[in-house]
């Protein structure tokens, strides 16, 4: 005889009805575990169905359904406003604190060097960066701006300020928010793939990362703020997601918001809203439906508009490095552009290997125990070596801006110190190629030294315990190499215009070669070599500079750098750091071509203990608690009986723990020898038996299964495209074993002759 949950059992009333509703905290996940995408999708579909049915009941319910539909757009608006505001504040603070290392504005202490001299009436055009209101530290303290004593004092205070900023940054990170260090993009990629890292996108991380990012960039370290701004924007996304239950209670929906937030982060980092959307799609997002594309576009638009309203660059433009070249590029120049692509690919591959080797050494030796000392040492070396060279002393963004610049008749930079023809009567915008003057040759030597310095120091800087982005340092390396090559090609064209390669397109007295364009192409090549981006990189670069006409050279360099880089190793810097940290990231770009079967990967294997399972009606509460205590599995298959092992479903460990805990607290009569039922109907029990516990509501009745003869190529594809957490292996309905995401990743690592134990998390 059986009874249904609605009937009375032994005078207990309806004890089972209490648990036909979801338990508190059920369906949430533990830290450092992977979410179940199918489960989250199913829960969201159920939620939509309930809202749709209730909306017909009353006007209030209809209004609530409209608010639910618009909540996504409200979240995007808030993310765009906050991330744009924070980016503007960071840009202004970095400009001021970077200049603080060299001097101070007497008329307004909060003005940067450029802002200080804007308002001065005593500035000459040749010395536009010098004004009485701005004084270097030596002028302020000794009254002398020139001489050995003034140089030494400025040198000493430059290093001292750099050390102070770096020490403050690493101390704040270590004490208040350890997750605020690094770029953040490898972890963001992993989180968007379904991994849980509690606190990584929290309020403290947002606050500390914003403050320490300003300090780290201002210290003069070879790092950028662009990567960390993606982390900051995702923290904003997580913050506003928690205000709406639609996102706070569904990890899958939350990740749609975070994908859009990543787009907003790149939008404000580079002033490139379209590039931000493509970056999120190409580089960081794991699940990117069409709805997320629209919302990403909206968030990036609002963020860019907010940043433009703040106008941190003071040029009334959104772009960071606006350029205006007056000469078109020629087909023959594709050769040096492709060579820059080769350089970018080689540099990217070498950088990834060297940086990963250094980071691995940091993790496995005593070096990792002294993060503060490491930051101080790197900062001291950087500041001491950087100060004597004017191209390394200034901020990296200012350096790139100067390298991208096209020389005009009014430029006072050494890079524009050409020998002018006094009889020249050409328009200002059409200056012919000229022989290089002494300033240009001096600048080339200084740039060559700066190139070596940037290449070496960036390897040791990326990964230290302060916020550190890689976009700007990589672009600086490429821009320096590109500018040097551009000047070389320009001088060859001037002195050897009768060569066959120049004869057709470069006549004497013409403006043929633009060195700034080579710098722009080199920057794209090196950034592509390190990150292996292609489409989003090209769009970011032309949005960043306003150089829409030069898409083809950028495309040629980006594709070449990716091909060359992939020849040395297919993973970019972010994938390499994900692998180094052992995160369970199943990259959609990886191909699995080995001929293995599900039976070769599943657990238990031959010689291993049998699989831990629960039966549908023969297990007591004590047995379940003992199984949870003795194992660390994420969940347990439920079978008809241990003899038949016919599969019924799958129950999550956390759901099981919380359900039993709630039952003991809220339901009288549930004791250790109470029988746990996963069946739809319960048998009639004698009055002497303890109250049973029905847990069918937490049972997944449709777990994903494959047969033991399924090729692993198919299994990997299923895990990748469906975002599975685990997959059960059966034969004719009988349970044989289980394959988890961790098993798949370890098997792939083993097949590629890598250490399978490097995959540390579930």
From TrEMBL:
It comes from the Eukaryota. This is Chloride channel protein. Pfam families: CBS, Voltage_CLC. Keywords: Antiport, ATP-binding, CBS domain, Chloride, Endosome, Ion transport, Membrane, Nucleotide-binding, Repeat, Transmembrane, Transmembrane helix, Transport. The gene is CLCN4. CDD domains: CBS_pair_voltage-gated_CLC_euk_bac, ClC_3_like. The chain crosses the membrane at residues 70-94, 155-177, 197-217, 257-281, 293-310, 330-352, 372-391, 443-463, 470-489, 517-542. Belongs to the chloride channel (TC 2.A.49) family. InterPro entries: CBS_dom, CBS_dom_sf, Cl-channel_core, Cl_channel-4, ClC.
């Amino acid at each position: 005889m059986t009874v249904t949950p609605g009937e009375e059992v032994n005078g207990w009333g309806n004890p089972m009805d209490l648990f036909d509703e979801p338990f508190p905290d059920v369906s949430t996940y533990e830290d450092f575990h992977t979410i179940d995408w199918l489960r989250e999708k199913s829960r969201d579909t159920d939620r939509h169905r309930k809202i749709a049915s209730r909306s017909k009941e009353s006007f209030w319910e209809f209004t609530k359904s409209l608010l639910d539909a618009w909540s996504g757009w409200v979240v995007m608006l808030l993310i765009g406003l906050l991330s744009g505001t924070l980016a503007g504040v960071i840009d202004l603070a970095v400009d001021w604190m970077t200049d603080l290392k060299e001097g101070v504005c007497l008329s307004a202490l909060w003005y940067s060097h450029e802002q200080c001299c804007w308002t001065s009436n005593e500035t000459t055009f040749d010395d536009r960066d010098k004004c009485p209101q701005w004084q270097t530290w030596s002028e302020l303290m000794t009254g002398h701006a020139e001489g050995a004593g003034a140089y030494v004092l400025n040198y000493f205070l430059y290093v001292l300020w750099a050390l102070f900023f770096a020490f403050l940054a690493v101390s704040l990170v270590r004490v208040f928010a350890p997750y605020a260090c690094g770029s953040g993009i490898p972890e963001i990629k992993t989180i968007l793939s379904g991994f849980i890292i509690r606190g990584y996108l929290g309020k403290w991380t947002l606050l500390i990362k914003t403050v320490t990012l300003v300090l780290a960039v201002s210290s003069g370290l070879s790092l950028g703020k662009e990567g960390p701004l993606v982390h900051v924007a995702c923290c904003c996304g997580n913050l506003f997601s928690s205000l709406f239950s639609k996102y706070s209670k569904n990890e899958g929906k939350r990740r749609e918001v975070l994908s859009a937030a990543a787009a907003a982060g790149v939008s404000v980092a580079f002033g490139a809203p379209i590039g931000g959307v493509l970056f999120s799609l190409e580089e960081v997002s794991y699940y990117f439906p069409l709805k997320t594309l629209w919302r990403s576009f909206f968030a990036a638009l609002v963020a860019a508009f907010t940043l433009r309203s703040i106008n941190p660059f003071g040029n009334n433009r959104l772009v960071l490095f606006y350029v205006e070249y007056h000469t078109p590029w020629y087909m023959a120049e594709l050769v040096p552009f492709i060579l820059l692509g080769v350089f970018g690919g080689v540099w990217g591959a070498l950088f990834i290997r060297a940086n990963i080797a250094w980071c691995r050494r940091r993790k496995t030796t005593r070096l990792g125990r002294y993060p503060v000392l490491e930051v101080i040492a790197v900062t001291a070396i950087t500041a001491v070596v950087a100060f004597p060279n004017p191209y390394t002393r200034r901020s990296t963004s200012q350096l790139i801006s100067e390298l991208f610049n096209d020389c005009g008749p009014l430029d006072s930079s050494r890079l524009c110190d050409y020998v002018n023809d006094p009889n020249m009567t050409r328009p200002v915008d059409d200056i012919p190629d000229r022989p290089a003057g002494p300033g240009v040759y001096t600048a080339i030597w200084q740039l060559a030294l700066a190139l070596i310095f940037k290449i070496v120091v960036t390897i040791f800087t990326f990964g230290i315990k302060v916020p550190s982005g890689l976009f700007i340092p990589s672009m600086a390396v490429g821009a320096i190499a590109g500018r040097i090559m551009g000047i070389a090609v320009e001088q060859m064209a001037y002195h050897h215009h009768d060569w066959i390669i120049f004869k057709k397109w470069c006549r004497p007295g013409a403006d043929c070669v633009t060195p700034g364009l080579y710098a722009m192409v080199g920057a794209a090549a090196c950034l592509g070599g390190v990150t292996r981006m292609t489409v989003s990189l090209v769009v970011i670069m032309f949005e960043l500079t306003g150089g829409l006409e030069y898409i083809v050279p950028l495309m040629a360099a980006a594709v070449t750098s990716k091909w060359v880089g992939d020849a040395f190793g297919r993973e970019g810097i972010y994938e390499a750091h994900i692998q180094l940290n052992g995160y369970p990231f199943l990259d959609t770009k990886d191909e699995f071509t080995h001929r293995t079967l599900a039976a070769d990967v599943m657990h238990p294997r031959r010689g291993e203990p049998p699989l831990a399972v629960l039966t549908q009606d023969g297990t007591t509460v004590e047995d379940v608690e003992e199984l949870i205590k003795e194992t660390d599995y994420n969940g347990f298959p439920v079978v008809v009986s241990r003899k038949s092992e016919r599969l019924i479903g799958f129950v999550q460990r956390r759901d099981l723990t919380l359900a039993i805990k709630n039952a003991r607290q809220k339901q009288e009569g549930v004791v250790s020898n109470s029988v746990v039922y996963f069946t739809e109907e319960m048998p009639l029990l004698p009055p002497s038996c303890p109250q049973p516990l029905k847990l069918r509501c937490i049972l997944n009745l449709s777990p994903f299964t494959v047969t033991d003869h399924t090729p692993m190529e198919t299994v990997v594809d299923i895990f990748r495209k469906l975002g599975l957490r685990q997959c059960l292996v059966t034969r004719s309905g009988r349970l044989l074993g289980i394959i988890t995401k961790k098993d798949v990743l370890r098997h792939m690592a083993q097949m590629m002759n890598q250490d399978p134990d490097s995959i540390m998390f579930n």
